[in-house]
Specification:
single chain; 353 residues; alpha+beta; 64% helix
């Protein structure tokens, strides 16, 4: 939650903001779940923000704001807002630490300058001095030397502490980035991270090298949720994600794209290779009979359907994803539990095992 909303929900305006969020949810038939409440607080607090504009676009298009859509919106917009806040806070702290280091260095330069002036003055004075004056001069030099040494010890301690703080802030920022790009339930990359990686590959990957995108959906997932509840549904999601995570190790990428849908990127690999890999994963997933953790009841087998598209020359991310989605729908229409490879002119499906 960004700072403006965070301040509002802790101010006298909080009740009015909450009532407006609930009114908007009721007006558009959105269930008041914690996630939806957080989303619509942004809409109520700032009707012109990107999240509010996207929700308005979906409503105008006749879309019902379902749980899956809410999760996608949260992954795309709320994570980014939270990341921006964390980045800004960490950036301010880093700026303060760097300013402190600059101040320390300036202080050290001033001390060194003073010491140099003391030595220069001593050199001029030693040309004609008696014994007592010389002893006084040596004493002053010794005291100045001790002061410089003590200051250097203090300076080293302050620089060490500042260096530790900067390193700690960098690690925290890296952790924040990781959390903002990761799906909490499956520990796979989230939709925002996947979309950015797909765009980046389409913009930077050598056109002579293949790029293959796969979209995977758990068959009849709603049945698991309706029959066994969301906790068991989460168990199924984590199981499928664990298999896809092994496939999606770098330089590949596996992500939870939304609800029961997953996306995989295969830079440098052809559709034929990916088809073989996903058929092996499909067979592995379907070979295991899952049991409900709380009661040890059999849940039956889980199957997946997949659509694959290899990037055509010059094709952008939107069109590549659209072809993979269409291939996925063909897998579902042909009976599910299968992998379909898309081409620009035709599609071919691999038969279910």
């Amino acid at each position: 939650m960004n700072n403006d909303i965070e301040i509002s929900v802790r101010s006298p305006n909080a009740y009015a903001l909450a009532q407006e969020a609930l009114r908007l949810m009721q007006e558009h038939g959105v269930w008041p779940t914690p996630l939806n409440y957080e989303l619509w607080l942004y809409v109520a607090g700032d009707p012109e923000c990107p999240l509010a504009q996207e929700i308005q676009r979906l409503i105008k298009a006749g879309e019902q704001i379902t749980e899956d859509i809410s999760e996608s919106l949260a992954a795309k917009f709320i994570s980014r807002l939270k990341l921006n806040d964390e980045v800004r806070d960490a950036g301010l702290k880093l700026t303060r630490e760097l300013a402190s280091i600059t101040e320390i260095i300036a202080d050290a330069r001033q001390t060194q300058k003073h010491y140099s002036e003391t030595l220069e003055g001593a050199q001029k004075s030693m040309s004609a001095v008696d014994a007592d004056a010389l002893r006084g001069l040596v004493k002053n030099l010794a005291e100045a030397t001790v002061q410089v040494l003590n200051h250097h010890v203090e300076l080293e301690g302050r620089l060490t502490e500042s260096s530790r703080e900067v390193n700690r802030l960098r690690k925290h920022l890296d952790q924040v980035r990781m959390e903002a790009m990761t799906d909490a339930l499956t520990n796979l990359a989230n939709r925002k991270s996947f979309d950015e990686a797909l765009d980046n590959h389409c913009e930077t990957l050598d056109a002579s090298k293949p790029l293959t995108l796969a979209v995977i959906d758990i068959d009849h997932f709603k049945r698991f949720n309706d029959t066994w509840g969301h906790q068991t549904g989460d168990q199924v999601l984590r199981y499928v994600a664990s298999v896809l995570a092994r496939i999606g190790r770098q330089p590949r990428m596996a992500a939870r794209y939304g609800g029961e849908e997953f996306g995989l990127l295969f830079p440098g690999e052809t559709a034929g290779t990916v088809e073989r890999i996903l058929n092996e994963a499909r067979q592995e997933i379907a070979s295991r009979v899952l049991k409900r953790r709380s009661t040890n009841e059999d849940l039956g087998t889980v199957t997946i359907s997949a659509g694959i598209a290899e990037r055509d020359f010059g094709e952008d991310a939107f069109d590549l994803l659209d072809r993979a989605d269409k291939a996925l729908y063909q897998s579902k229409n042909n009976g599910r539990n299968r992998v379909t490879v898309a081409s620009l002119t035709s599609m071919r499906g691999s038969s279910a095992a």
